[in-house]
Each structure stands twice: as structure tokens, then as C-alpha cells.
């Protein structure tokens, strides 16, 4: 007996992703040559026969949340099927549902319900990006990067992108502007040191050194978005510029932007608070602290010291 079931067209997907999968054609779009069908075929396929989406924009997943989803699947089963495209007999490539697939593997499932679709490589990328954007736990920088990839790699205009993801053009523009911020501020946004409101205010400051000075003040003094906006407004209007530029200049003398970035990278690499001290004549020193013999040996191993 066949394990295939014929289902009516689903409309529960997000506006953009649903349109891409053929559930809800975009307004005014031509259906000529479309791969969408009035009915979908739901199959149960082997978990081992599904390879991950090579265009998946998000490679890191919260392992604790994945374990919770796995436990839920073990008890309740898969509530929402994954979507795949057929590559060969009993060989599929994931379009959407990466977390469900990974959690199913953790739960020990042998088979998983799946919709089988036809999709080009560009459509695969577009669908993966849009599904990624529709996740609620993305940080603003991840959303902005996904928008940028849709524009550059899928050749979408901002108006088209807004329609695909169900957002106003102004919203898309606000996210894209975040990518103009220096790496330190983007990292602060990723790690929730500042909010989207803080970042949107900082984008309006043209001088990067001043941006960084304000960013550090926000983090240090826990400034609200309203106070940050007022500070930025004063700077744009010519008030408080001297103070902020002086602070930025003093910080730059202490450690340049490039050395500050290098110091951060070295600290991450060695798992220690690396300090770089630099003089005006381009001389300086790098300090790597250790707290025990074992810690020293760990650092020496990283240095490949023999």
C-alpha cells in the first residue's frame, strides 16, 4: 500500500515563503510555467535520505532548544512536515525545516513526513533565506544579512523583497542600514548589548570614531534609546560634538580601530584577556595572561610552542 496521502493546499505558511513554495502566488504574478499545483503530495521519507540545504544561511542552532524540540517530537511526533526537493531515487535535499530534521535525528526517528517540491538552486536559496527571516529568534544583524543576500544573490529589488517577506520597504531599508555600522557595534547588537533602537540612532552618525564612543557610553551607562537619540540629535546639530570627538580621539590614541579588533580576535583565540599596548612609533607589546600552569600549557599549545 502506498504511503502517499493527498492533501488540500496549505495556507498556513508565511506570506513570502508560502508564495515561493507555490501555496500563495504573489499578487499579479504570472502562473505560466509555474511548478505549483492545486494539490500536494505528503510522503514519509527516510531521515537518512535527506541532506541538509547547502543554501541554509544559518549554520548554528541552540543545542538546548534543539534537545527540547527533539523531546517533543519523540512524544508528539512531527506536527509540521519538512519540505524537500528530490535529487534522485530515495535521495532528497532539504528546502525548509532544518531544526525539525536535526531534532528528528536526535529523537531517533527513521522516517519523517515531507512535502516534495521542484525548485531551482536560486529558489532554494531564496526559500531558505525567507524561512530564516521569519524565525522569531534572529537578531537584527542576521535579518539584515539575509535581506542583503536576497537582494544581491537572488537579484530582488527592495520593493520585491518587501512583498516576499511581508514587510514595508522602510522596514527593509532600516535593517539594511545596520550593515553600515562598524563590526564592534554589529557584535553588540548580536549579543544584545544594545537594541535595534540604539543601532538605528547610531547609523545617523557619520563619524565612525564618534559612533564607537557613543556605543561604549550606551553600554557603560546603560543609556536608554531615548537618551541615545537625544545625544545623536545634539551631535548632528553641532552640540556636544567636541566632547564626543575628543573622547573618540583619546581612545584612538590609546588603541587604533585595527589593533582593537586584533585584540578582540586574539582574546577569543586564546580564551584570555589579551592586551595590546601601542606607542606612537608603531612599537608595542602583546600581553597574554595565564592563571595556572595548566592555563599556560594550554596557551603554549595554541602557540605551537615546543
Automatic annotation (TrEMBL):
Alphabetized UniProt keyword annotations: Chromosome partition, DNA-binding
Matching Pfam families: HTH_ParB, ParB_C, ParB_N
Region (Disordered), start-end ranges: 1-38
Biased composition (Basic residues): 1-12
SMART domains the record matches: ParB (SM00470)
Domain ParB-like N-terminal: 43-133
Family: Belongs to the ParB family.
Protein's UniProt name: ParB/RepB/Spo0J family partition protein
Organism: Algivirga pacifica
Amino acid at each position: 500500500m502506498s504511503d502517499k496521502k493527498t492533501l488540500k493546499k496549505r495556507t498556513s505558511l508565511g506570506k513570502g515563503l508560502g508564495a515561493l513554495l507555490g501555496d500563495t502566488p504573489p499578487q499579479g504574478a504570472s502562473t505560466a510555467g509555474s511548478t505549483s499545483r492545486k494539490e500536494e503530495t505528503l510522503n514519509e521519507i527516510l531521515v537518512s535520505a535527506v541532506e541538509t540545504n547547502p543554501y541554509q544561511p544559518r549554520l548554528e542552532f541552540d543545542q538546548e532548544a534543539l534537545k527540547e524540540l527533539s523531546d517533543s517530537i519523540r512524544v508528539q511526533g512531527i506536527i509540521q512536515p519538512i519540505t524537500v526537493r528530490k535529487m534522485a531515487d530515495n535521495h532528497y535535499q532539504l528546502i525548509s525545516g532544518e531544526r525539525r530534521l536535526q531534532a528528528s535525528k536526535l529523537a531517533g526517528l527513521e522516517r519523517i513526513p515531507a512535502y516534495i517540491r521542484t525548485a531551482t538552486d536560486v529558489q532554494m536559496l531564496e526559500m531558505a533565506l525567507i524561512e530564516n527571516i521569519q524565525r522569531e529568534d534572529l537578531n537584527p544583524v542576521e535579518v539584515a544579512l539575509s535581506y542583503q543576500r536576497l537582494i544581491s544573490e537572488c537579484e530582488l529589488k527592495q520593493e520585491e523583497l518587501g512583498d516576499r517577506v511581508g514587510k514595508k520597504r522602510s522596514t527593509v531599508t532600516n535593517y539594511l542600514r545596520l550593515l553600515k555600522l562598524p563590526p564592534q557595534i554589529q557584535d553588540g547588537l548580536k549579543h544584545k548589548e544594545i537594541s535595534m533602537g540604539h543601532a538605528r540612532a547610531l547609523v545617523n552618525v557619520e563619524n565612525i570614531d564618534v559612533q564607537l564612543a557613543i556605543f561604549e557610553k550606551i553600554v557603560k551607562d546603560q543609556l536608554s534609546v531615548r537618551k541615545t537619540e537625544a545625544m545623536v540629535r545634539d551631535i548632528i546639530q553641532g552640540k556636544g560634538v567636541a566632547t564626543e570627538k575628543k573622547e573618540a580621539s583619546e581612545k584612538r590614541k590609546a588603541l587604533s580601530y585595527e589593533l582593537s579588533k586584533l585584540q578582540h580576535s586574539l582574546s577569543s583565540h586564546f580564551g584570555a584577556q589579551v592586551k595590546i599596548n601601542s606607542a606612537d612609533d608603531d612599537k608595542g607589546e602583546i600581553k597574554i595572561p595565564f592563571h595556572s600552569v595548566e592555563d599556560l600549557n594550554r596557551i603554549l599549545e595554541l602557540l605551537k610552542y615546543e
